Write the structure tokens for this entry.
Amino acid sequence: MKCVDTSRNAAGAVHALVRAVLGSEIPLMIRCWDGSEAGPPDAPVRLVLRRRRALRRLLWAPSELGLARAYVSGDLDVETDFFESLSHLERIIGDRSGPWKVDATTKREMLRAGLRLGVLGLPPRPPAEEIRLGGRRHSRGRDARAISHHYDVGNDFYRLVLGPSMTYSCAVWDDGAKTLEDAQTAKVDLVARKLGLREGMRVLDVGCGWGAFVIHAAREYGVRAVGITLSQSQAEFARKRVAEEGLSDRVEIRVQDYREVRDGPYDAIASIGMAEHVGEAMLPTYASALYALLRPEGRLLNHAISRKAGIPGNLGRTSFINRYVFPDGELEPLTVMVGAIEESGFEVRDVESLREHYALTLRAWVANLEASWAEAVRLTSEGRARVWRLYMAACALTFERGSIGINQVLAVKPGAQGASGMPRTRTALLS
């Protein structure tokens, strides 16, 4: 690898550094704190390093975590289209979830460039939006702290991003969905139909969020529903929403861990976007708990993101997602999820992939955020708004290229002599 030929201005030095680390010419233009620029003027990616601290963050954490810290703190900005820029950067640097590998010669040149640029020094304090949890992984207390970090950002902020439905999971963009609201209504109704909801049934929603599914199920299908969440702010919002809909006699919202529910049996259980928080080690406990809460021939609908086999599932201790978005989150291959559900005693009857739908949903959320950026910053912080923009845009691209997926797994608790009471065809199931 060639030595870094640092030029007289900051941008030239930085551009040479990046080129040396990556080992190739890159379609990237850089503008630095001193106003200098380097790189192709028509580059598809234009980065702005607003402060020397951006480079110090990268020197101390030469990984996606360093890049994320620089962006979240405002030390680094992206001037070109955000989705296109992220897509190019991912292709440029490839899989860089760990520290970037550079040889000894390049390391020496990086040190010289750092001295010239005046960026050497102690590691900068991470942005306030970063979290590192203590205690036993997936204990009830630690899970509650992880959920609070992600969901107790503020209901007004979530309403801005998610839209009026306040539905934080993959929408279903069927032929009739013209808007995000249409698509989210289609999703909760799809879950209701797969569960075979009928008037008078008793339904549990595990990880109920802001109450979209339990409200739809009670209003449209006449069921009695219990929704549980670990987020106080979600529960407060959901209870108010239930009251406004006139459904307080049919819908109960609890702040409760799924391991603490003792009032079964239920006729049906929905788990929509919650299993990602459970963790592989706890999946047998999770599936067995839901099995015990269902009556014979009761149905479970598990809606969860999945990863390809062979890719680490715990999102990496030093990954942006783990430190800023979903602490302790774990994605499992579909086979692992189905296996845990089957091993607990369920019979799996239907699996549906919604991967492309989640990419469309995430792009809609990013559009909502960008359209009301100033208000989002006012409601939380600029750092938090940047976390969400980066997280949702990156995830949309990941779904689009098929690196992760999302699936609805429908299972049934067998009844007497193994009877399931299930329709024989998917057409009958959804009618």
User: Anything to note?
Assistant: Residues 1-7 have pLDDT under 50 and may be disordered. The first strand starts at residue 28 and ends at 31. The chain has two domains: 10-117, 140-430. DSSP finds 17 helices and eleven strands in the chain.
